[in-house]
Amino acid sequence: MTLDRLLGRIGRNSLFSIDHLLNLTAFTRRLFALMVRPPAVGRALVRRIVFEQVYFTAVQALPVIIPFALILGAMLIFQFAQLSGPYDLGKTTVLLIVREFGPVATAVLVILRSATAVTIEIGYMNVLHEIDAVEMMGLDPMHLICIPRLIGITSAVLCLFLVFDVASIVGGYGLAWLVSDIPLGGIFTGLSRAITVSDIIVGVVKAILFGITITVTCLYHGFMLQKQITGVPVATARAMIECSFYCLLVNIAVSILFYL
Amino acid sequence: MSLIELFSYRLAAEGNRSGLSRVNLRLKPGDTCLLDADVPEDAHLLLRALATLIRPISGTFRFSGESLDFSDYRRLLPIKRRIGYVAQDAAMLSNRTLRQNMLIMRYYFENSLRIALDPPTENLSKRLGLEGVLDRLPAEVDPIMRHLAIAVREVSKSPVLILLNRPEEIMGKEGFHRFLREVPDLLAGKTAWLCATRNSFFIEHCCNRRILIRKGTVVSGTGPDDGTSA
């Protein structure tokens, strides 16, 4: 009896998870179909919302992400410098900051700062009938609400990833040089020798995929909310956890694809 | 030709009520109907259904003679655009000003952000006392003003059907009176109205038909060619 219940629960949870993943995939597919064949109308309005989204997600995040990148960069360079010489220091920095740490840290910051905001915003729009209002105007919420956020957040993650890498390497090196006597000479030579085109491509690919993953997951949770205000924090928490998990999966998948 | 026809329409309730069943209803252009329900939620449910905001359990919805397909929300958007809906749950986008909310449809369909309110909408806003609050966000204005602005937005769509639920409560008694006085063309023209209200001015001077909902069914209609059945 207990085994039956256990198997039943495992089965139900598995079906629920598969259903959820299929819904997310269908949602993503519909968004991309809209991006590939956008309606002839609404471009000016969508463009404006894209700019607003880039401003909220990228520009307003700079005062948070730059100090964060500086502190983390300095901390990592301190530790790497004690382990390796100047040449290896550049190589280690590329390996860990550009390839792995930069995209993941940027994604985590965007999830903490903007993804939660998007889920809450869409959740409230849903609960307070603003999505209905958009539809009553004859406008497609997927085009007016989702597409600008998808483009805006993905572009913002890409820009923030570049800022994060530069700030953590250059700033981290500067901070480490200022406050310690660790020999750091030649780090940039080492960096330039160690970094390859594929490292930059991998970083960009990861940033784009993270942006898409974060936006789609958050929008989906916002739209799927039942019309109850108490559902908003629950949906936000779920969206955050899922975004983080999916981003880690994407990170591993891209790293394996390019480096193994 | 009828503007809207519902045949054997069944609607699930929102909450723990039993919903509406066997709804047969026909609305023609120019009908100005009073919706009288024994339970206010039933009137609200029917109005939401007519606004195509909720899917039926079963039945047929014909708009200008064409059956609506509820399986894809995108097919309903051109229909929704032609229906004005003013109720407690009608909303504005909270991060846009009242003016932008009134213009958003035109921003979208005219593909430009450099357009101003057209003179009729601007004049209607002025006469309803909205002039001073048009550049404020919805949360910054009184709920009555907000619903008046929603009514202006819906009227500016040049709808073929206007649905109102308890307008005297959401727009205020005086606001609803002013609104009715300012839209004589819509009242006398081919726009159909369906209004759940107890406002005596609307009942005595505007409506030409009465639709009754009793125990979850549209039971009768009065007035010329009522088009409803039990």
Helix content of chain B: 25-40%
Number of domains of chain B: 1
Based on DSSP secondary structure assignment, what is the total number of beta strands of chain A?
0
Q: What is the H-and-E element order of chain A?
A: HHHHHHHHH
Shape of chain A: globular
Give the DSSP E fraction of chain B (strand runs of 2 or more residues): 15-25%
The radius of gyration of chain A is 21 Å
- What is the total domain count of chain A? 2
Characterize the main sheet of chain A: none
Structural notes for this entry:
The complex is a heterodimer of chains A (260) and B (230). With 260 residues, chain A is an all-alpha fold. Chain A folds into two domains: 1-36; 52-259, no CATH class. Chain A has nine helices and no strands. In chain A, α2 (43-59) runs parallel beside α6 and α3 (62-83) crosses α6 (141-179). By secondary structure, chain B is of the alpha/beta class. Chain B has a single domain (4-13, 20-222), classed as Rossmann fold, CATH 3.40.50.300. Helices cover 34% and strands 24% of the residues of chain B. In chain B, β4 (58-63) and β5 (66-67) form a beta hairpin. In chain B, α3 (98-109) runs parallel beside α5. Chain B is globular and about 45 Å long.
